[in-house]
Amino acid sequence: MNIHEHQAKELLRRYQVAVPDGQACFTVDEAVAAANRLEFPCVVKAQIHAGGRGKAGGVKVVRDAGEAREAARELLGKTLVTHQTGPQGRVVRRLLVERACRIARELYLGLVVDRAAGRVTVMASTEGGVEIEEVAARTPEKILRETIDPAIGLAPYQARRIAFGLGLGKEQVGKAVGFMAGLARCFLESDCSLVEINPLVVTQDGGLLALDTKIGFDDNGLFRHPELRELRDPSEEDPREQEAAKHELSYIALDGNIGCMVNGAGLAMATMDIVKAAGGMPANFLDVGGGASAEKVAAAFRILLSDAAVQAIFINIFGGILRCDVLAEGVVQAARQVRLAIPLIVRMEGTNVDEGKAILARSGLDIITASDMLDGAQKAVAAAGRRS
Ligand code: GDP
Ligand code: MN
């Protein structure tokens, strides 16, 4: 789960991490009042779950109440398209109004899970304000790393090494060590998957400030943090992913046009690979899980059908704990509720496969049967191709 910048900054404040004074605003009047209270110049920032706002006109420095009103009016309700939103963009529904600061240097500081090391890693770079992926690709030597020992946390000597590596002056090293300690504690205590400060700025008077903050949480840890779960903003999330979460389905929306319904995460991944190998693009990752009921299968099928980009559905099931007859019941149930107007390709093996096939055959649904995974993927790609 991701949260907004203003929420992330509030969380960091609790860990004594320095962030600019600011306020979240939902209306133009609120934004003007906040700017007046904070004193000028201020920065009016669009709050969306995507970066790249600066270049897209989503971050505006304002010098008086008139400019604040103008900026808030322009941004609220606007569909902001950045290089991270995709071409459809994101609607701005809230703003963060902050006291502006005078920037001397822009740095990068991020905490991520290093999956190869199996540990949380601090990454830092003098190249702040730009995409860290770009820095990593072009000048990997400019990225400093320190791996956190889970038994100890971020050790002060590690934070100092980063601070010196960033070329910070004597007066800032102590501040930077406290700053990083706060970030590391926030990351570990809140079960984060990402804490990114880009840019971390050195101000002209020698202070350190988190000017932009992005925080993501590991969904599997959220049950331990009911207060963080409250920060969810449904308007920023894919409606199909939300519906899937309600039914405890593992569903992730993707860009392609072949809807995939599979049981087991491994088989689901293999199915996506084989669809791509057959020349197609999956529209989603979907694992209906082991013990799915017919109702859960029906919900999954409805989610696939609600995606206008889907031109064919490929059901790839290896019945084990999930029996083929239960799967077939669910598909038929959903197809009765929602008229099935696109090709349905089914590859089914395993427990009660004959009953499953009989249920599908009796349903009168127009089904293309596949003999194995590759055959199914090829048939799905061909069927989707004929339609688009
Ligand atoms: P992003 O583009 O979505 O990552 O949004 P950021 O919050 O990182 O803002 C983009 C850029 O706006 C920053 O890199 C800064 O250069 C600039 N910016 C943001 N806040 C201030 C501020 O208070 N003062 C000044 N001078 N520039 C700011
Ligand atoms: Mn940024």
Task: Give a brief description.
With 388 residues, this protein is of the alpha+beta class. Helix 2 packs antiparallel against helix 3 (65-75), helix 5 packs across helix 6 and helix 10 crosses helix 11 (324-337). Helices cover 37% and strands 25% of the residues.
* CATH top-level class of the largest domain: Alpha Beta
Terminal Cα separation, in Å? Answer: 34 Å
Give me the Rg, rounded. Answer: 25 Å
SS strand fraction: 25-35%
Q: Per CATH, which architecture of the largest domain?
A: 2-Layer Sandwich
The chain-level structural class is alpha+beta
CATH superfamily label of the largest domain: ATP-grasp fold, B domain
- Main beta-sheet annotation: 6 strands, antiparallel
Number of domains: 3
Mean pLDDT: 93
* Number of helical elements: 13
Quaternary status: single chain
| CATH domain topology of the largest domain | D-amino Acid Aminotransferase, Chain A, domain 1
Question: What is the β-strand count?
Answer: 18
Task: Tell me the helix content.
Answer: 25-40%
Bound compounds, each kind once, are: guanosine-5'-diphosphate, manganese (II) ion
Shape, please? Answer: elongated
